[in-house]
């Protein structure tokens, strides 16, 4: 029997409380803690990865910019985009960071294939692309052998904020979304497939969990809000 992957569908959330909850979950988990996959939408926010250069934010306007510890440069999160946080014990899975990235990319590629959208990865530029446009971004961190942060898949959103940045540090990089590529505009429909594909990539059995942060993560998140 495959080990469980607890699925938490959190709806729309501000960025910082979820970030703090994710950090706390990773810090407190032990060898017996089940892996989890959090799915949500964020309120509008730009995030700069640990090597992110502020000059790649061209005109943030009224959207906040936050510096975080994930890999990668700058990206945008907002309503209509699936953000997925795979909180995985890589040691237990027997994989390294490169394989983690490749499997997440493949899960997105296989998800899009359900709607006959042909997507690919690019060497040296993590993420998922359709033709020359980016549809899915990755930004990960591993601490104590466990992953946090994750993926962002554009489904049916306002793409204008991407024009305020150099997405992922690439000037002029085009972005696209599932709806414009002929897929569904329903986040829940895409999430259903993404859950199955990501679980398959890691040999895990998806199990629904409460649509809320785990207790100790929720406590830290609540403190962040206060």
UniProtKB/TrEMBL annotation:
InterPro entries, per this entry?
aa-tRNA-synth_II/BPL/LPL (IPR045864), BPL_LPL_catalytic (IPR004143), Octanoyltransferase (IPR000544), Octanoyltransferase_CS (IPR020605)
Alphabetical list of NCBIfam families matching this protein: lipB, PRK14342.1
Q: Supply the alphabetized keyword list.
A: Acyltransferase, Cytoplasm, Transferase
Q: Which residues bind substrate?
A: 70-77, 137-139, 150-152
| Single GO cellular component term | cytoplasm
**UniProt gene name:** lipB
Q: What is one process in the GO biological process aspect for this record?
A: protein lipoylation
What additional remark is attached to this entry?
In the reaction, the free carboxyl group of octanoic acid is attached via an amide linkage to the epsilon-amino group of a specific lysine residue of lipoyl domains of lipoate-dependent enzymes.
Q: Tell me where it resides.
A: Cytoplasm
This chain's function reads:
Catalyzes the transfer of endogenously produced octanoic acid from octanoyl-acyl-carrier-protein onto the lipoyl domains of lipoate-dependent enzymes. Lipoyl-ACP can also act as a substrate although octanoyl-ACP is likely to be the physiological substrate.
Instruction: Supply the name of the protein.
Output: Octanoyltransferase
Q: Where is this site: Lowers pKa of active site Cys?
A: 134
What range(s) does the BPL/LPL catalytic domain occupy? 31-206
Fetch the CDD domains from UniProt.
LipB
Q: Which GO terms describe its molecular function?
A: lipoyl(octanoyl) transferase activity
- Output the Pfam families linked to this UniProt entry: LplA-B_cat
Catalysed reaction per UniProt? octanoyl-[ACP] + L-lysyl-[protein] = N(6)-octanoyl-L-lysyl-[protein] + holo-[ACP] + H(+)
Q: What is its EC number?
A: 2.3.1.181
> Which pathway is this protein engaged in?
Protein modification; protein lipoylation via endogenous pathway; protein N(6)-(lipoyl)lysine from octanoyl-[acyl-carrier-protein]: step 1/2
Q: Catalytic positions?
A: 168
Concerning PROSITE patterns, the annotation shows:
BPL_LPL_CATALYTIC, LIPB
* Broad class of where this protein is predominantly found: cytoplasm
The record's comment on protein family reads: Belongs to the LipB family.
């Amino acid at each position: 029997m495959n080990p469980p992957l607890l699925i938490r569908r959190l709806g729309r959330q501000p960025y910082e409380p979820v970030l703090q909850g994710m950090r706390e979950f990773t810090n407190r988990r032990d060898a017996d803690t089940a892996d989890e996959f959090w799915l949500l939408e964020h309120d509008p926010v730009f995030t700069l990865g640990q090597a992110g250069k502020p000059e790649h934010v061209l005109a943030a306007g009224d959207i906040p910019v936050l510096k975080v510890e994930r890999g990668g440069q700058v990206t945008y999160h907002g309503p209509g985009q699936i953000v997925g946080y795979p909180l995985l014990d890589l040691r237990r899975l027997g994989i390294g960071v490169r394989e983690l990235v490749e499997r997440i990319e493949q899960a997105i590629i296989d998800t899009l294939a359900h709607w006959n959208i042909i997507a690919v990865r690019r060497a040296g530029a993590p993420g998922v692309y359709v033709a020359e446009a980016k549809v899915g971004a990755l930004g990960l961190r591993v601490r104590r052998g466990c992953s946090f942060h994750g993926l962002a898949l554009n489904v049916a959103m306002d793409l204008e904020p991407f024009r305020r940045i150099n997405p992922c540090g690439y000037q002029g990089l085009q972005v696209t979304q599932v709806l414009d590529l002929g897929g569904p505009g329903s986040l829940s429909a895409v999430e259903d497939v993404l859950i199955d594909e990501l679980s398959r990539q890691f040999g895990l059995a998806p199990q629904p969990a409460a649509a809320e942060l785990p207790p100790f993560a929720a406590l830290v998140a609540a403190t962040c809000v206060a």
